[in-house]
């Protein structure tokens, strides 16, 4: 298997995309340590497979707390001796109808600190989105790199970004889009800083089929209508993201560094060119 003997840390593995990433890394032979704020008896991706359970752990870590990251990474190194792969997956947000007045329900769903005051609520909502989607991945990368830079071989960091970080901007997701755009940029900078010891790459996801995406984003939309502009006409699957992580962290991708791969079924092109191509077609 491609990743036999490698130790991988994946953030946000209690549900969603992180489960698919952890599962595919396990399938490729890696030892996988996952984390989330909630305490769980084991890594959900390993459920039902004793060999995978043997090769995995799920520990509590709040990536918003630098001391929690320090304690978690220290425990990984003390237990497994090294870190070959870090996938910064934990993050996300929910759309807000306006950037300046975030509804209490939206704040609650995102999980950001609450406030009865409208301005304070909006300010905390945006600060939280930037913390979770840019600053915490940087904190995790810095702490993991302290270990990775001392090891033999080349380590791999993969940041999970979003199409919302596209340079055209991202209405309803203004702070999240800015944070993910920053994450793409951070990926390039850290790749330069840490090469050749660490390769740093990024995956910018389009709609990916998780419980949260299905309830809060897809909701009651008709999937055929929702995915009309996506050339592949569907959402991605967490395991598809996981298989790209396996590829990026395996020897097969040794020369891929500092790049952001769009994993969205061609959605950006579909959305951007829908209007333009229609106009051109009308002219012909
Ligand atoms: N799903 C999509 O359509 C989509 C699209 C584009 C990009 N993405 C990106 O993909 C990544 C995963 O998204 P998802 O849809 O799988 O989200 P999700 O279903 O909300 O899962 C988020 C995971 O992160 C954990 N987490 C949240 N806050 C944390 C914290 N402070 N410290 C540690 N762990 C924390 C959660 O566990 P606890 O709550 O137990 O802590 C959970 O395991 C995110 O970076 C998101 O921006 C997703």
From TrEMBL:
Q: Which residues form a coiled coil?
A: none
The UniProt keyword set, sorted, is:
Oxidoreductase
**What InterPro entries would the database entry show?**
NAD(P)-bd_dom_sf (IPR036291), SDR_fam (IPR002347)
Q: Which Gene3D superfamilies match?
A: NAD(P)-binding Rossmann-like Domain
In which family does this protein belong, per the annotation?
Belongs to the short-chain dehydrogenases/reductases (SDR) family.
Q: What is this protein called?
A: NAD(P)-dependent dehydrogenase (Short-subunit alcohol dehydrogenase family)
């Amino acid at each position: 298997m491609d990743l036999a003997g490698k130790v991988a840390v994946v953030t946000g593995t209690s549900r969603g995309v992180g489960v698919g990433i952890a599962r595919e890394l396990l399938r490729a032979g890696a030892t996988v340590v996952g984390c989330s704020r909630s305490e769980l008896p084991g890594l959900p991706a390993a459920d039902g497979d004793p060999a995978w359970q043997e090769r995995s752990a799920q520990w509590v870590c709040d990536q918003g707390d630098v001391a929690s990251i320090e304690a978690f990474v220290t425990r990984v190194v003390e237990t497994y001796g090294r870190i070959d792969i870090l996938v910064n997956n934990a993050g996300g947000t929910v759309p807000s109808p306006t950037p300046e007045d975030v509804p209490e329900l939206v704040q609650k769903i995102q999980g950001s600190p609450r406030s009865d005051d409208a301005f304070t609520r909006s300010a905390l909502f945006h600060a939280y989105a930037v913390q979770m989607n840019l600053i915490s991945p940087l904190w995790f990368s810095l702490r993991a790199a302290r270990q990775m830079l001392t090891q033999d071989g080349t380590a791999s960091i993969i940041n999970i970004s979003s199409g919302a970080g596209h340079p055209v901007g991202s209405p309803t997701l203004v702070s999240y889009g800015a944070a993910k755009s920053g994450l793409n940029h951070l990926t390039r900078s850290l790749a330069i800083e840490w090469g050749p010891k660490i390769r740093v790459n990024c995956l910018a996801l389009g709609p990916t089929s998780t419980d949260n995406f299905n309830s809060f984003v897809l909701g009651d939309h008709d999937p055929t209508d929702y995915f009309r502009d996506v050339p592949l006409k569907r959402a991605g699957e967490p395991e598809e993201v996981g298989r790209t992580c396996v590829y990026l962290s395996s020897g097969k991708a040794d020369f891929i560094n500092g790049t952001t791969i769009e994993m969205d079924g061609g959605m950006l092109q579909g959305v951007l060119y829908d209007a333009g191509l229609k106009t051109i077609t009308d002219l012909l």
